[in-house]
Specification:
disordered N terminus; Jelly Rolls; 293 residues; eight-stranded antiparallel beta sheet; 2 domains; 45% strand; disordered C terminus; mainly beta
Length: 293
């Protein structure tokens, strides 16, 4: 992430790679008028490693035109309708109550679109961040389904599927299969940021930076169908995966962080990579304290 740090008349542009959004103060002083590009890498713990942070979708154009996600629809079989439209905030996906359609890191032949997609180790932890707005949704045919679902599975197939209505988010259970479990009443209409964090045996969902839902991971591999995506390790899906609900949603940038052990918490490892720092001192202001003579 890019962060702009200012102190007195110094403008500092820093790129932090693999660093948590915790408070760290870096004080740099140069002579007035200096303009110096600086590059450095430092760590408070020599055993620290960078997390794998992957921008799965930039938020511009269609996701399938980029490296990590594919789009698929069964419209030719179901005779339903799925329309994806680039919009200013990302992409809008509209599905009817018959079609199944959405975005995944797997192709229809159940091979990864990008073989470099990382293993999602739930013990190390991982997190998916995305911008999402559910403009409309209809689940009249089945109150246990949703017109937009987010599915994220670990390398060992344990994970979570969340169904999004316009006023509620629900976790799908695995016993009985695909019956809603824990949920939260909250508006999802406006496009806003979400973070789905998986660690150990549980998940946490954040909406706009606030935790709104948590629960145990599930195993959906007992699903029986012509194609069973729930037996695919590191599986990700965003879209309409049911023939009993419909929705219109907007999706913005999607980012995956695959190793939370590399993300420092207070008192734990801190690793910062700062790249291309430009410092410009305004005239008439002093950056250096006066030295005694």
């Amino acid at each position: 992430m890019w962060a702009c740090l200012r102190q007195v008349d110094v403008h500092v542009l820093v790129l932090f790679v693999g660093a948590a959004m915790t408070s760290h103060t870096i004080r740099v002083m140069f002579r007035a008028g200096a303009m110096l590009p600086v590059m450095w890498l430092f760590s408070l713990n020599s055993s620290a490693v960078l997390a794998a942070v992957i921008p799965l979708y930039s938020g511009a154009g269609l996701p399938a035109t980029q490296a990590w996600l594919d789009f698929a629809s069964d419209a030719s079989v179901s005779l339903g309708t799925a329309v994806q439209t680039p919009v200013a905030a990302g992409v809008q996906l509209t599905t009817d109550a018959v079609v199944k359609a959405g975005y995944s890191n797997y192709l229809v032949n159940q091979q990864l679109k990008n073989p470099a997609f990382p293993a999602l180790d739930r013990l190390a932890g991982y997190e998916l961040a995305l911008d999402l707005g559910v403009q409309s949704e209809n689940h009249a045919l089945n109150p246990n389904r949703a017109g937009f679902s987010l599915t994220l599975l670990s390398a060992d197939l344990r994970g979570i599927e969340l169904g999004f209505w316009t006023d509620r988010i629900q976790a799908q259970g695995d016993s009985p299969l695909f019956q809603f479990g824990e949920g939260v009443m909250t508006s999802t209409v406006a496009q806003q940021s979400y973070r789905l964090r998986v660690q150990g045996n549980s998940y946490r969902l954040f909406q706009g930076g606030v935790q709104v839902l948590t629960g145990a991971l599930r195993d959906y591999s007992a699903f029986a169908g012509p194609i069973n995506p729930y037996v695919l390790p590191n599986f990700l899906f965003l879209g309409d995966n049911t023939a009993s609900a419909a929705a219109t949603v907007s999706l913005g940038p999607i980012v995956l962080e695959s190793d939370l052990t590399a993300v420092p918490e207070p008192g734990v490892t801190v690793l910062l990579a700062a790249v291309a720092i430009v410092l410009i001192a305004r005239p008439g202001r002093k950056l250096l304290e006066k030295r005694p003579v």
